[in-house]
């Protein structure tokens, strides 16, 4: 008699009755592998994964190529496990979109830390808000460097106007976790402020995030005043964005690379 006969159904029944939280780490991996490894004992693969990567979190943080090297892993199984953390981030972000008050600095900072604060390279994000502070969409610029990110301001402006943003929260991450502003960070805020506000897009805040921390480049009193005025200000029909493309600076002038080698003294 095969000792593994019926094992998959017993594990599924355990989940039905007690939920995923009742499973040991190797059982969680077994269950996730069922759909991608149909004719092998996934218990052995799960234990091998935990031995190789030391923990369930280590397995989920391993990349696709590393996961493929484990005996018994299929290509689809490695791809699925490698993308689970990204799925969880998307879930948290989508849920937060409907529950957070983006005009509250602490909640905006939390959201942006979850969105880009954990990334190993610099990323710039702009949260486009309507007149009631609801999130309309996000504009992002990625980088392959840990100390710099290039921002195409012309593209940023176009995207914000297409979203009909009345306000925006700007942010970029410092992968080191040190959220101290640099002189370039201050210049970025000044430049974007002088570009966006004449077009009718108010900068509510400009944050540096990383390692769960955040610092604002907007002076505290000014930031509170901006958020308060924004929350109490224009009604839905009172604001009209500038015509798409109108007043947008030439691309060569505003395709910017900001680095952090000149931290403020």
Task: Please describe what this structure looks like.
By secondary structure, the protein is α+β, with helices and mostly antiparallel strands. Helix content is 46%, strand content 17%. The protein has helices spanning 7-18, 25-33, 42-53, 56-61, 64-68, 75-99, 105-117, 153-162, 183-196, 220-232, 251-254; strands at 123-129, 135-142, 148-152, 167-173, 202-210, 213-216, 255-259. Helix 9 links the parallel strand 4 and strand 5 (202-210). Helix 2 packs across helix 3. The protein is elongated, with a radius of gyration of 23 Å.
Q: Which key terms come to mind for this protein?
A:
single chain, 265 residues, alpha+beta, DNA polymerase, domain 1, 2 domains, 7 strands, 46% helix, disordered C terminus
Q: What is the structure about, briefly put?
A:
The chain is an alpha+beta fold and 265 residues long. The chain is 46% helix and 17% strand.
User: Which bin fits the share of residues in helices?
Assistant: 40-55%
H/E topology pattern: HHHHHHHEEEHEHEEHHE
Q: Which parts are unreliable, with pLDDT below 50 for 5 consecutive residues or more?
A: 234-265
Number of domains: 2
Round the mean pLDDT to the nearest integer and report it.
81
Strand residues, percent: 15-25%
What would the principal axes of the Cα set say about the shape? elongated
Work out the radius of gyration: 23 Å
Architecture of the largest domain in CATH? 3-Layer(aba) Sandwich
Strand order of the largest sheet: 2-1-4-5-6
What is the count of helical runs? 11
- CATH top-level class of the largest domain: Alpha Beta
CATH fold name of the largest domain: Cytidine Deaminase, domain 2
Q: Biggest sheet, in brief?
A: 5 strands, mixed
Q: Report how far the terminal alpha carbons are from each other.
A: 74 Å
Class from helix and strand fractions: alpha+beta
**Name of the CATH superfamily of the largest domain:** Cytidine Deaminase, domain 2
For the secondary structure, the number of strands is: 7
